[in-house]
Design a protein that fits this description.
The protein has about 150 residues and is of the alpha+beta class. The protein contains 4 helices and 4 strands, in the order ααββββαα.
């Protein structure tokens, strides 16, 4: 079974491939990579994610990024805290890191510092907590209907 960090590494590779054909710009969304058939909807779902195929497991922050941004800028990260209180982060240089949940926001703060320096809009961290999700499996609704 693939791991979430492997999925994010693949996304990073596909973003780099996209940049080669788009003047160094990052894609406007991860859906763009799917539309261009560079990646599948399956590859946008973390193996331990509670989200069904078709609902991306990652928040994307790269829509306004381009080749040459600081390598520590955050491009994408797990939507949920489902990795033993750690969260996978994809950086602009394609590296993936899994820091403890307690320090995750320090990476977002650093990213926003870079954004201010480059006159880019700051992006608030978005987080979905596993225990707040009502439906952890895509077929839960069907089970409710059948009962």
């Amino acid at each position: 079974m693939a791991h979430c960090d492997e999925s994010l590494k693949l996304i990073g590779e596909k973003i780099a491939e996209y940049q080669k054909n788009h003047d160094g710009m990052f894609p406007p969304s991860l859906d763009t990579l799917v539309e261009l058939e560079m990646i599948t909807v399956w590859e946008l779902v973390c193996p331990v994610s509670p989200f069904p195929v078709g609902q991306c497991s990652y928040f994307y922050r790269g829509a306004d990024l381009f080749t040459g941004v600081p390598k520590e800028m955050v491009v994408a990260y797990d939507k949920v805290n489902g990795h033993k209180e750690r969260r996978n982060i994809l950086f602009a240089n394609g590296r993936v890191h899994r820091p403890p949940e307690g320090v995750f926001n320090s990476f977002i703060r650093k990213d926003n510092e870079f954004r201010r320096q480059m006159n880019l809009q700051e992006i608030k961290a978005e987080i979905v907590w596993v225990d707040q999700l009502k439906h952890l499996r895509p077929h839960d609704d069907l089970e409710d209907i059948e009962e």
